[in-house]
Write a structure and sequence with these properties.
With 343 residues, the chain is an alpha/beta fold. The protein contains ten helices and 13 strands. Helix 4 runs parallel beside helix 5 and helix 8 crosses helix 10.
Amino acid sequence: MPSEFYASGRPNILVTGGAGFIGSHLTEVLLQHANVISIDNFITGDEHNIDAFLSHPQYEFIRHDLCDTIDLQSLPELKKFKIAVQGIQQIYHLACPTSPKEYRRVPLETLHANAYATRNMLDLARAYQAKILFASSSAVYGEPANDVPIPESWFGYVDPIGPRSPYTEGKRFAEALCWNYRSTFNLDLKIVRIFNTYGPRMKLNDGRLIPDLVSAALTGKPLAVQSHPQATSTFCYINDMTDGLIKVMDAKITQPVNMGSDTPARIRDAAELILKIAGSSSSLQFEPDGASHHKQIIPDIRYARNELNWWPLISLEDGLKKTIEHMRAMAHLYDVQGEQREQ
């Protein structure tokens, strides 16, 4: 669509969870061609992720809890985007704690983000007839029965009251809400089930595998891997993921889409690669019965390959080099226990 169609000269795109890991990277790409309104309540987001955008003329950040409704037209800082005339063209709904460490700390907030915040964004999409993409998760599949790649048609095997339930059941409910809004109100709605993704701007104290291993390597602590030495996982670099999200938003598709790497790698190999890149002498320890361990899922991404011409392109080694470089530069923001210092 030509730019002169828009009253502001660019499409208006809303990114929820915009100060988060994926949201901030997505914002960086979208700013090349769109006005971006980023919303976050900082329950898990990081203001450092958006520092580079704050002076950009096509960017505005709104601190807001999306469990409460929001009137975009009433906000004076958004007047320049001419929302009253142009409306909102796209909504990327990413707002939700995603790390086990975080959603166990704020379980009710995680459930509310998937329920109330999702409902409010769906209503906003209805009001503006905007395209909306909901960022779901591989967590909707629960624990896999075997190591076969999981297709989108798999119904899942989820514990509704287990320690991961605020996230897993929250995402499953949100998908149901999205799908029924779509069929009831004819929304242009997309669902992406995101698999293990890593890269710069993940917090060193994030509680997920790659940040935990990098943090230990940079501080000389043992790399504690909560799995068997031969266990595998998949790793998708953030740039590949943002490329996939944009392709889904722009595509005419009618089903949820798996996005992630379909090439499993041994966790041990990833840890040893981190030690090598970081130049660390830390030891490697395996804790097969770790409390947070759960079986990793391999995605079947044939639909994304065939319909969207998408698959991960960045190698694990190249992705880890960029990730470690960024985390090393940001390490001064954390204390010796790995907790983020107050700013």
